[in-house]
Design brief:
545 residues, mainly beta, four-stranded antiparallel β-sheet, 2% helix, elongated
Length: 545
C-alpha cells in the first residue's frame, strides 16, 4: 500500500494506491490504471491479491541425455510412475523410491503426448504408437485388437458385418456357423496373407496343415473333417491376414491425443500426422489398440492442420491452424446407439478466424478452454445448452510483449492452481483466473504477470506441485513459499519489481511538491524493499530502502 501527499496553491491532496493487479503492456504508461503496472517482473498476486515476488524453483531430476520432450504421470495398482521422454529415450521414475529405469530407446526427439486408459500408458511421438503396462513397453501395432469383421457366416459365405477392420493390423477374424456337412469355408477376403491361419472350433484350437488346408488365392479353408452342426451358434472362428493394405502409419505418425466420450472418457482421438494434417482417428470404446477403418474423419480442408483438442461440457473442441479457406474451430459431440452400443461422433463447424499456433499451449482454466494464436491467447466460450461457441481474446494486456517472442510455435502452456502458465524463450506469462475483469472493449480478461528465467519447454502437475522440463535435459520444480531457498531459481536470486504508472496527480500541467511518501509492506520475517522514483529531473532515484 502506497500513499502520496502533495500540496497545491490552496489545498493538500492525497493519492492512495491500495488495489494492485498485473501488468499492462498495452496502454501507454500515462494511461495505465493505477492498480496495474506498465512494467513489473517476477511478481504474482498472493491469496489477498497483494503483489509478491514469485517463488523460485529447484532441480528435481536430471541431467538426462537430452531435451525433455514430454512428461507424464502413470498411476496403476499401488504404484505411481513419472514417465519422461528425453531426447530419443523413454524413462520411468518411481515416485516412491526415485528409481529411474529405461523403458525404450529410438523414439523421436520431438514433442510428444500420452494418455492412460484402463491401467495402461499410451505414448505418441510421431514415429511409433507405444504402450507400457508397468512391465513391458511395446509398439501397439505388435499387440493389436483383432476385429471380427463378420458373424453368422455360412461356409459358403454371407453373414452379418460386425466390426470394421483395424488400421493397426491386417489381421481379422471371421465367425462361422457350421452345418455339419461342409468342409470348405470361404473367408470374406481373397488373396490372403502368407502368415499362418488360426482356427478354433467350439473352443478347440486347430492347426493349419494338420487339421485343415488353406487356399490363399481363393481365400478359403478346407477342413479334413466337417465341423459339427452348431445350429447357428457360430462355433467356428478363423483368424487370418487379409490382402488389404496396412494403414498403421496413419496412427503411428500421430502426435496429438484426446480422450472423449458421452459423460466420460470412453474413446481416444488421435491427430497430428504430418502427412494428413486435417485428419483424426478414433479408437474403439475403451480400446486404444483398435482404430477401426470406419473411425476416420477429415476436419475441414487440408490447407490447415489440426493443432489440438479442448473439452468444454459435453463438447470436444477441435482447433486448427489459421487457414484462408477453412474454419479454425470445429465442435464434436457424442451419441450412442442404444441397441448396438456403438458411439457416433458428429462434427459441425464452429467459429472462424482465430487458429492456434502452438500445439503445447492448450489448457482448460476454470472451465475455459485456452490456446495461443498468432494474435494472442484466446478462449473458446459458450454454454452447455447450445453448441454455439465464440472466440474471446484474453491476453490483450501482454500481447505487446508476447507477440514479439520468437518461435511462438514452441510455446508451452498449462493450468496450475487457478492460473494459466505460458512459457516461451525462458519467459513466462501467467494469467490469474481469480482476477477476472472486463476490459474497455467489453471482453473478459485476466490479470497477467510477466516472469523471466523460466526455461520451460513442457509442464506437468504432480501432487499439487508444478514441474517443467528444459532444453538441456533437466526437470525443475517450483518451490512452495515455506521451503528453504524458495525465492531463488536453483540458487540464483530472483530480481523482482513492480512499477507504478506515471503519476501526474490528476493534473499534468502543474508542478507538484511531494510532501510525504508512505509505504506499507507485508509483514514478512525476512524481506526487503527498495523504493525509487522518476521525475522530470531525476530517473530511478532511490529514496527508501
Amino acid at each position: 500500500m502506497i500513499y502520496y501527499k502533495f500540496s497545491g496553491t490552496n489545498k493538500m491532496k492525497k493519492l492512495r494506491l491500495d488495489m494492485f493487479g498485473g501488468v499492462d503492456f498495452f496502454s501507454d504508461a500515462s494511461q495505465v490504471s493505477l492498480r496495474r503496472s506498465p512494467d513489473a517482473l517476477n511478481m504474482i498476486a498472493d491469496s489477498r491479491y497483494f503483489p509478491v515476488k514469485r517463488t523460485g524453483y529447484k532441480k528435481a531430476y536430471g541431467k538426462f541425455s537430452g531435451r525433455i520432450n514430454g512428461m507424464f504421470l502413470y498411476s496403476h495398482a499401488d504404484k505411481r510412475e513419472f514417465i519422461v521422454h528425453t531426447y530419443t529415450e523413454l524413462h520411468s521414475i518411481d515416485l516412491d523410491t526415485g528409481e529411474d529405469k529405461m523403458l525404450y530407446t529410438g523414439i523421436n526427439n520431438d514433442s510428444s503426448s500420452g494418455f492412460v486408459m484402463k491401467g495402461i500408458f499410451y505414448f505418441l511421438d510421431g514415429k511409433r504408437f507405444m504402450m507400457y503396462d508397468g512391465k513391458d513397453t511395446v509398439p501397439v501395432d505388435t499387440v493389436p485388437y483383432i476385429p471380427t469383421t463378420v458373424i453368422g457366416r455360412k461356409p459358403s459365405g454371407g453373414g452379418e458385418r460386425f466390426e470394421s477392420e483395424n488400421l493397426l493390423t491386417q489381421q481379422r477374424k471371421n465367425s462361422f456357423t457350421a452345418d455339419g456337412t461342409s468342409k470348405e469355408y470361404k473367408l470374406d477376403s481373397i488373396n490372403i496373407g502368407s502368415q499362418k491361419v488360426e482356427c478354433v472350433i467350439s473352443g478347440v484350437k486347430k492347426t493349419e496343415g494338420t487339421d485343415f488346408t488353406v487356399n490363399r488365392t481363393k481365400g478359403s479353408v478346407t477342413f479334413n473333417t466337417a465341423p459339427a452342426n452348431d445350429y447357428g451358434a457360430d462355433s467356428v472362428q478363423i483368424t487370418f491376414y487379409s490382402s488389404s493394405q496396412t494403414a498403421k502409419d496413419d496412427i503411428n505418425k500421430c502426435t496429438i491425443c484426446s480422450v472423449f466420450g458421452a459423460g466420460n472418457a470412453t474413446t481416444v482421438f488421435l491427430s497430428g500426422n504430418k502427412n494428413k494434417p486435417n485428419a483424426d482417428w478414433h479408437s474403439g470404446t475403451y480400446n486404444p489398440t483398435y482404430f477401426p477403418k470406419s473411425g476416420y474423419s477429415l476436419i475441414g480442408s487440408d490447407s490447415s492442420a489440426i493443432m489440438g483438442y479442448l473439452r468444454q461440457f459435453d463438447t470436444q473442441i477441435i482447433i486448427k491452424s489459421p487457414g484462408s479457406q477453412d474454419a479454425t474451430q470445429y465442435l464434436r459431440t457424442c451419441e450412442y446407439d442404444e441397441d448396438t452400443g456403438v458411439g457416433y461422433f458428429p462434427v459441425q463447424q464452429g467459429a472462424d478466424g482465430i487458429g492456434a499456433c502452438a500445439k503445447k499451449s492448450f489448457a482448460v482454466l476454470e472451465d475455459t478452454p485456452l490456446f495461443l494464436s498468432d494474435m494472442g491467447v484466446y478462449a473458446s466460450v459458450g454454454n452447455d445448452i447450445t453448441l454455439v461457441r465464440t472466440m474471446s481474446h484474453r491476453s490483450k494486456a501482454v500481447d505487446k510483449k508476447l507477440l514479439k517472442e520468437a518461435n511462438l510455435e514452441k510455446a508451452c502452456g498449462c493450468k496450475y492452481m487457478g492460473r494459466y502458465y505460458l512459457a516461451v524463450n525462458s519467459h513466462c506469462y501467467v494469467a490469474d483466473s481469480r482476477q477476472l475483469y472486463t476490459d474497455a472493449d467489453g471482453n473478459k480478461s485476466y490479470e497477467w504477470y510477466y516472469w523471466d528465467n523460466i526455461p520451460a519447454i513442457c509442464f506437468i502437475e504432480i501432487d499439487s506441485k508444478l514441474y517443467f522440463g528444459t532444453e538441456d535435459g533437466y526437470i525443475y520444480r517450483f518451490c512452495n513459499d515455506s521451503e528453504r531457498d524458495a525465492y531463488s531459481d536453483n540458487g540464483t536470486a530472483i530480481k523482482a519489481y513492480w512499477k507504478t504508472p506515471m503519476l501526474d496527480m490528476d493534473v499534468s500541467s502543474q508542478y507538484k511538491n511531494i510532501r510525504r511518501v508512505t509505504v506499507l509492506t507485508l509483514p514478512y520475517a525476512r524481506s526487503s524493499v527498495c523504493m525509487l522514483y522518476n521525475s522530470d529531473r531525476e530517473w530511478e532515484k532511490e529514496v527508501l530502502r
